[in-house]
Design brief:
Blueprint (H helix, E strand, L loop, with lengths): L2 H19 L4 H8 L3 H8 L7 H11 L3 H7 L16 H7 L5 H15 L3
Length: about 120
């Protein structure tokens, strides 16, 4: 598999994991992101390469930064030198590939409980 194909597959897997973390079905996310259900499915499987606008819609629907998806898609340098956009604790938990969806949910619940916003 080519590097670029692996990159899009990784983007799709990340979107799928974020969708599951948000407890959204494919259909729900497609409605929120204003893309068709089949198109979103193809993105999640790494078959289709979405535009920056589509990635922004998906990011907004998932409540994650568009820059996170842009960087994962190779549309933005991950270390752009601008560290003003340091991820929040919740964003860092969501992006951690070493955690399962259930572990991420548990950590976010604990974090929010500490903040009093659970």
């Amino acid at each position: 598999m080519k590097t670029q194909e692996r990159s899009w597959k990784a983007v799709g897997e990340f979107i799928r994991s974020q969708r599951r973390l948000a407890d959204l079905s494919l259909r729900q996310l497609s409605a929120l992101a204003q893309v068709s259900n089949p198109y979103l499915s193809q993105i999640e499987r790494g078959i289709h390469k979405p535009s920056a606008d589509v990635l922004k819609g998906i990011a907004d629907a998932l409540h994650i930064s568009a820059e996170t998806l842009y960087a994962r898609a190779g549309l933005l340098n991950e270390d752009g030198g601008d560290h003003r956009d340091t991820p929040t604790v919740e964003q860092a938990i969501r992006m951690d590939a070493g955690l399962t969806t259930e572990q991420k949910k548990a950590l976010i619940r604990v974090y929010k409980s500490f903040l009093g916003s659970a």
